[in-house]
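A quick aside before the break. I want you to see a complete sequence-to-structure record at least once, exactly as it would be stored in a machine-readable document. Don't worry about memorizing anything.
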Amino acid sequence: MPAPAFTTLSEAAGWFEAWLRDGALPLWASAGVDRTRGGFHEALTPDGRPHRTMRRGRVQARQVWVFATASQQGTLGDWRDVASQGFDLFVSDYRRPDGLFARLADQDGRIIDDTPAVYEQAFSLLAMAALFAVDPSRKGLAAEGARTRKALEARHNPAGGYEEFGDEHQRYQANAHMHLLEASLAWEDAGEASWAALSDEIVGLAMRRFIDPERGFLREFFDRSWTPLAEEGGLVEPGHQFEWAWLLDRWGRMREREDAVEAAHHLFANGLRGVDVVREVAVNALWEDLSPRDPTARLWPQTEHLKAALLFGTQAQALRAAHGLAQYLDTPARGAWRDKMQVDGSFLEEPSPATSFYHVLGAVLPLLRHNDRLGPTR
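That is the input. The structure line, written in tokens, reads:
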């Protein structure tokens, strides 16, 4: 199903909605679910068969979020049973005695790596918030989310934020905080006001430390005092500029903080420095001077490019982002995707990672809402 050259955002919205409703959601709810013991497969082959391998906790949580969130949209179907069953197995297999979630299990649910990575906790919290929002009968989820948040305090850094597991280069990072912010805001949206303090702390850290005060781009890695790492550590990811822009704008409007909204606009502009106009895709990484560092292009930055372009950009920029994303969805099985585009525009032949569905749905839903605001095409 080659991607058309969209001429309007309404046309793009219709194409992506049909792809989700008739392709991706049914495919990943069938072939993407382990029918023997439950839970979600880590990946599918491009022709739609399960790719059997170890299973990360983040993938289980992200797929719960996908099916719970899709169920809130009137035109995409009711996938609450898929979300609920996936979440119950996730808790059974990955929950540690301290209330946090392990990183990795095998296909039979045996824990291979019980590290309670901050990144994994962020997505477990996001999954709980989504399921709480779509299934009011699961009243205990609010308490479960609060329990996980409390247990996470063991990783709190005296300088603010949280310390991730891993080597020194990875331990103090913006990325895990970005997803914690996303989860915290989701709990706020679900009516749980106690999460506001966490949202505010993370945004404060981002505004003070993660974002370069002179050039307005977001850095990735830091030392214990949140001083940015330089040289090889000075990575700038266009996809994260877009992703943080979306979240900061959301928080800034909730709190009536114009400085956060302005910072979001700067992040979007810097993210555009990483868009290859020939391939119509956002590349993986830039150097600190915003010159190309890794010109290959994974799927997920394209989704964040589209979300941000709909919010901050022109219609032409949003159309370019929509077409860039759609290129990845031309696979033998409708509803699968390619993950890595090479410099020449070709794709690596490899399985479709389940973890990408979170990104794709997160981009298509704003496109559908944007289209609703536009009204019928004339």
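Two observations worth writing down. The chain is about 50% helix and 10% strand. The two ends are 26 Å apart (CA to CA). We'll return to this after the break.
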